[in-house]
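User: Can you fold this complex?
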Amino acid sequence: MAEMMDNQVLRARGLTVRFYTYAGVVHAVTEAYLNVYEGETVAIVGETGSGKSVFTRALTGLIEPPGRVEAGSVLFKRKDGSVVDLAKLNKEELGEIRGYEIAYVFQDPSSALDPLYTAGDHIMETILEHQKVGKGEARREAVRLLKDVLIPNPEVRVKSYPHELSGGMRQRVVIATAIANKPKLVIADEPTTNLDVTVQAQILDLLDELRRKYGMSVILITHNLGVVAEVADRVYVMYGGRVVETADVFTIFESPSHPYTEMLLRAVPDPTRRVKRLESIPGSVPNLIDMGPGCPFAPRCPHAMEVCEKEFPGALQLADGHIVHCWLHLRR
Amino acid sequence: MNILYKSSTVLLNKYAELRERFNPGWLERNKSKLQEMKLTLYALTTSKTGAAGLVLVLTTTFLALFGPSLSWEPYDMYPVLKNPALAGRLPHPPCMNDCSGMPLSGTDVYGRDILSLIMRGFRIALVMSLIIVVASAALGVLLGLVSGYFGGFIDEAIMRFTDMMLAFPGLVLAIAFSLTLRISLRNVLISNTALTALLAALFALNPADAPNIANILSLFLALILVWWPPYARVVRGSVLTLREQGFIEAARALGLSTWRILTKHILPNISSPLLVMFTFDMATAALSSAALSFLGLGAQPPVPDLGLLISMAGQYFPERSWWIVLEAGFALLLISLGWNMLGDALRDVFDPKTRRSIELKAKL
Amino acid sequence: MLAPSEEVMAMALIRLEGVKKYFRVRGSLFSALKAVDGVTLEVGRGETLGLVGESGCGKSTLGRLSILLIEPTEGRVLFDGMDVTKLKGRALKEFRRRAQMVFQDPNTSLNPRMTIYEILLEPLNEHGLPPDDPESFIVEQLSSVGLGKEHLFRYPHELSGGQKQRVAILRALLLNPSLIVLDEPTSSLDVSVQAQILNLLKDLQAQRGISYLFISHDIGVVNYMSDRIAVMYLGKIVETGGVEAVFENPAHPYTRYLLSSVPIPNPKLRNRRKERLQGEPPSPINVPPGCRFHPRCPFATEKCKRDEPFFTELERGHSVACWLYAK
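Assistant: Here's the predicted assembly.
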């Protein structure tokens, strides 16, 4: 358990992030964990306040004060095969890894791109930062990457400014920038939420294609269970800052074990079936300030027991790769 | 800082108790509103500028209200007339040890106690600023609201008119207006004693001195005429932004009348930048009216206008009247500094970004 | 308004006829932003019509046109048999009582300076319907949308997103409208809260017989809420019909692509045949001639490039505007 497997890319354990505000301590992430293997797509699913965004930013040290990573290790296998603990690296070392070995794609392409720089500028910047190549070579590479992300007329578009591009094209430019240095891991935080359905489908297809072509691993953060079902290999479900269940995608959808996962699946309207009534989850997402020691879902859980409010349940392995944190199962 | 906050919350709580006694259930209905007020007060008093500004404004306002009653000398009596022997020693500087009957803070060229004059001066300065700012704000806000909300031709017409007014240098225009309005206003006042008495009471002056009151009136009317354009501009801008907001569209969908939308939905939501403008303007208005008085366009002696006092001290400056300039100038400084600091702090309080961080600090 | 006659009762509640809305484009004399370009649509009594489409299709504009929040450039709006298109003043206000709207973002659709009580009391007072005991009346109404007395005197920012949207829905309901236009009412809410709001809307419809014009880009939500559906593309309706009919047998190529692009929360279906639409949704400023979809349509013929297709009825209630089906 303490070592990485051969084909494992990332191994995060016990990651805890707190935000110290004057209103109280925000327990953004508590003892979260994650395994990512080569060539797979891992989805992290959760609603507002689940901690999924903070968790993935904490992986590469992107947490600024008043936030602080309290504990945890993040083992990462670099391109040269060496294994480092990202949580222990300093700013400079992390800077080398970010953009070169781990890349991010964020939700809003309009704010991810600097309006004063062209598409080509963005891509070239990251190439020149991490690789020892000349400007001419970087520019050629930029055009090649734009072609890779299926932007028509890449030689022309490389000189376009963000405001001259549509939402879908901007996101493609962001993706091109992310894969420019052939990273081992791409972390995409709600990359298609702001896009139209048809464009979303194109972008998801593209991410999948690129992942296969370049042998990358993808961490996909989303609240859209349809997207998860379409592209993910394995799924982590987060609630109130904790991981509550993880399994491969088929298991999660067919035999969800955690009450939250079950109820979440039933609350999602399925476009292929007509149901009489959607099951809703009563109450609302928890306030993360000064949280208690118990399970964060207890206030809304129909199966909540006394112990649920006192202590957070440990990991229970139901099957290979299927872990759930719930007293309901631990009792049996 | 905390003392200010504590004392104001105590006052607020007492007020709430009183309302509750007369109107049971009031507290429950207004709990959120009270909370908002307390948060605003906290935000205001936490910053050093806010606290200092608040103290200065309260002090100068107190002096403005009670100064004339507290001052120990009438302003329209010249000691030198009663005691001609003093003439050679006037203006008399502030005396350190030996006063021999002369006031501590020095006199002006007529032998009047400077400090006593300044106490009255606060009233004039503040009432002037208040009238100028309130009247021009009212005019500007009205025009801005209409312009911003209705758009189209009305907007164009009002804005071009505003542009025209803004194109003139403010003080020059004020001078021109003041000079032309003077004569007609003098006649109006002389024939209308009730109006004269009212204005005299406001400024704590002698109602018999109608021509001087007319001068003051012409001064602030002139300033109002040039003061309103920025308000119209700012309000129009805010209305344009606000117009696209969801709740304005919702108000229209609900069939609410235009008047209601303007007064209950748009106006309260632009009150923050307006209030900030208001406070900064109070400072500027005080200084502008003092400047115009200094130039001789406002009241004439014996009115204890701060600008006028400085102007009269001019010919004896600096060895024989430095204390007059110092004291009157300091009074003006207190007024403008206080309002400026208050405005600064208010702007931070109302800006949602800085407000967030202050809110997180509060544990009410 | 007079009591409706029998013929009126049989008609649709609201009917849009050839409605167009063109916006002027700055700096250009000739081109216009054709947000809505000739739409004829009906919503029956007590039914939900789902309006789907992507960005730039004009569905939000159409929603606002149907309750006359904006004036149509051309066309008519018939409500309960009456032509309401050119209403002004008092008559318009009367109409507003019967046709209401719930907006997308609950964070901006409530006046941040008013308490919930004031927000809800206002429309009642404005329309001359002040309740006898305002406080208890409003508290009673709050419970019908799942809120309580404790929310009455709070400000909007003290409520959660779901709670705010409930207030917005109640505000629309208070005037007892026959039609509510819902513009993406759950898009900014979490999944678990969305389900609550959708269920609430369904319950209210069952209780009061209100018609909904439900605008959304989320096909799953539209599928759950609607009885009938209209698909919009670049300012025109391309297909309408009962929800099951359209979803099971989408006729228009755009509808097929649209449905095919929707992610399905069932991993077993992930390897199904997917038809992917190329390119981006076009701009309503440069509308292509003929059928608007022809630049992206693999079945486009010469006729498609020249002439705009009219509606063909495939089966009862299911119509499509496409030359592939014209008889």
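The longest strand of chain A covers residues 8-21. Residues 8-101+233-331 of chain A form a domain with the Rossmann fold fold (CATH 3.40.50.300).
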